[in-house]
Design a protein that fits this description.
Distance between the termini: 18 Å
Oligomer: single chain
Order of helices and strands: HHHHEEHHEHEEHEEEEHEEEEHHE
Number of helices: 11
Number of domains: 2
């Protein structure tokens, strides 16, 4: 339970939850499709008057959309065709039509970017290290896993476990990967290169090496990994599905499947405190809110 002081300090994040940018993005996409615009930049220049969409009023919509212009330009593929960059499938695992595919990809990226700001605003007042520590004796898990991009591994001064054995398995495979005849999660905190990519493994009673135990803060906060920027509310418009990757025009294209969900981790104190606000945000973005417990 958050204190009233902590709730008050979450004000900026709550304001963003009440006015999601995605409905405004979709309005701009409709205007782009039905208007004489070849690109989005001239359209944003014209959006100077307040508009209302999805029951929310937006002042200076062009200004609000400007930070998302690089994502809006992805939608220009509708009028300016280019070679495909990825495989997008619907929930029946059938190829999406071009309009739905572009809308889904832009929605995923827009919500991701907005949630980075929202999560930061809500997380900071909680003084919580939930994402940064391994399991204690009250939990069933033997370890926690933090997925990383390859370039993010340099942020951690840890041993790297990268072998043919690790690349053929995952952290949750049974039987588990053995190191010196013991399960990997009984060893010290380390970076592992699995079949699905790199991750930081936090065994029991461990913590991220970049966590400052004295302050509870992150030593590399400005450079923190992507997964740490959206700690407990996740965009799940699309899910990466490597099993459906495909070669097209000599390129291996990554595959994604539509999920149309927003995931919120129930362990988090601000997710519990602001469940209704998160649910309304998801609905305004035309996503199904899913609350689930991560640590048991």
């Amino acid at each position: 339970m958050l204190t009233q002081k902590q709730i008050d300090e979450c004000g900026q994040g709550l304001d963003q939850l009440k006015k999601p940018i995605l409905p405004l993005v979709r309005l701009a996409q409709m205007l782009y499709l039905t208007g004489p615009y070849e690109t989005f930049a001239p359209l944003l220049d014209e959006l100077s008057e307040p508009v209302e969409t999805g029951g929310v009023s937006y002042k200076r919509p062009g200004t609000l959309l400007r930070p998302y212009l690089d994502l809006l330009t992805i939608f220009e593929r509708i009028k300016i065709p280019r070679s495909p960059a990825r495989i997008l499938l619907n929930e029946q695992l059938e190829p999406m039509n071009p309009l739905d595919a572009l809308d889904s990809w832009v929605a995923q990226e827009v919500v991701n970017r907005e949630l980075e700001s929202i999560n930061s605003q809500l997380c900071r007042p909680c003084n919580c290290t939930l994402c940064c520590v391994g399991p204690d004796d009250t939990l069933n898990q033997d370890f926690f896993e933090i997925p990383l991009q390859q370039e993010e591994t340099s942020l951690f001064k840890l041993n790297r476990i990268d072998s043919p054995e690790t690349r053929l398995t995952t952290s949750h495979s049974e039987p588990p990967l053995l190191r010196n005849k013991s399960p990997f999660y009984q060893k010290k905190t380390a970076l592992y290169h699995w079949r699905s990519g790199w991750s930081l493994i936090l065994p029991r009673h461990s913590h991220c090496p970049n966590l400052d135990p004295a302050s509870g803060g992150c030593k590399i906060y400005p450079q923190r990994p992507d997964v740490c920027r959206r700690p407990q509310i996740f965009s799940y418009v699309l899910e990466r599905q490597p099993n459906h990757d495909r070669d097209i025009e000599g390129k291996s294209l990554p595959a994604f499947v539509a999920r149309k969900k927003l995931l919120a981790v129930w362990d988090c104190p601000y997710v519990q405190e602001f469940q209704e606000e998160i649910g309304r945000y998801a609905e305004q973005c035309e996503l199904e809110p899913v609350f689930r417990k991560n640590k048991e």
